[in-house]
Amino acid sequence: MAFTFAFLNYDKEYLTRFTMKAKKYLMIHADDAGLAWSENLATQQGMLTGSINSTSLMVPCPWFYEMAQFAVKYPSLDFGIHLTLTGEWKTYPFRPITPVNQIPSLVDKNGYFLPKREYIRDYAVLEEVRLELKNQIEFAISLGMKPSHLDSHMYTLGVRQDLLDLYQELGETYKLPIILSKTLISYTGESSTKFNLPHEKCFESLFMASMKEFEKVGNTAFYDNTLSNLPDGLSIILIHPALESEEMNQITIDHPNFGAKWRSQDAAYFSSEACKLKLKENNIELINFKSPIMLILLGA
């Protein structure tokens, strides 16, 4: 900590350029905490004894409360809110926090979130999205959580300009950084070139396994290669860990993309000694939204 305070005497622009060029910084970010017990336990184990150093919680999910209590118990760890507007699982839908009669454009006839981000792009009413997402954040805070950042489930907030504007507005309102990324927008099938974005605030050295890599080499090989070739500066790896279990098999039925096997590979790799060795061999320093250097880089 004294080292960090000494750095604060330097010009901020110089410090940023110096640190970004001189070091490989990495955030290993576990999405979807709160989705299920198997997801929570894998994330908790990875954060306490493995290499996972950041996560975000899905407030509308059945196991959110248990994960929120973990966040309250370990306030020094890095927990964000995984803002959720969709529920992609065939037999495991999510209900919003807001009464459904107040947000009819976001739900199906049974009051559940719709499964595809295209429905949000084409039909969501902005004020209803704002109400639901603020309620998600406020509910998390009411349980004692002190979130460090916001991000977007399935990057659904990246499919329309007004949703991207709202995403940034929420970050400003709650004084929290957001994971804004042209790369993630491209993963939704939209083109980031049609949106007005603050490029200096976007995270673009960002890595996430795809179905192609999963089927061709497996996630373990993908992560090994990513760590071996990580560029200098700040990078983020987005993962989705869960223990191998009948629970996850049932939740992800007919959904191999980010399915049970995929998540068990993520959990195994980022809780392994092999991952820690790979980080050490490549001189990679793990940082997250609570790291002093991240606060400097974000302008906090």
CATH first level: Alpha Beta
Separation, N- and C-terminal Cα atoms? 16 Å
Q: Helix count, per DSSP? A: 14
Predict the CATH topology.
TIM Barrel
- Bin the helical content: 40-55%
* Radius of gyration based on Cα positions: 19 Å
The CATH level-2 architecture is identified as Alpha-Beta Barrel
* β-sheet strand percentage: 5-15%
Structural class: alpha/beta
Which tags fit this structure?
300 residues; TIM Barrel; globular
Description:
With 300 residues, the protein is α/β, with parallel strands linked by helices. The chain has a single domain, classed as Alpha-Beta Barrel (TIM Barrel), CATH 3.20.20. The protein is 44% helix and 11% strand. The chain is built from 14 helices and 7 strands. The chain has helices at 2-7, 12-22, 37-49, 64-73, 117-123, 126-142, 161-174, 182-187, 211-216, 219-228, 246-251, 260-270, 273-281, 292-297, and strands at residues 24-33, 54-57, 79-83, 150-152, 206-207, 233-239, 284-286. Strands 1, 2, 3, 4, 5, 6 and 7 form a 7-stranded parallel sheet that branches. Helix 6 runs parallel beside helix 7 (161-174). The radius of gyration is 19 Å and the shape is globular. The protein starts with a helix and ends with a helix.
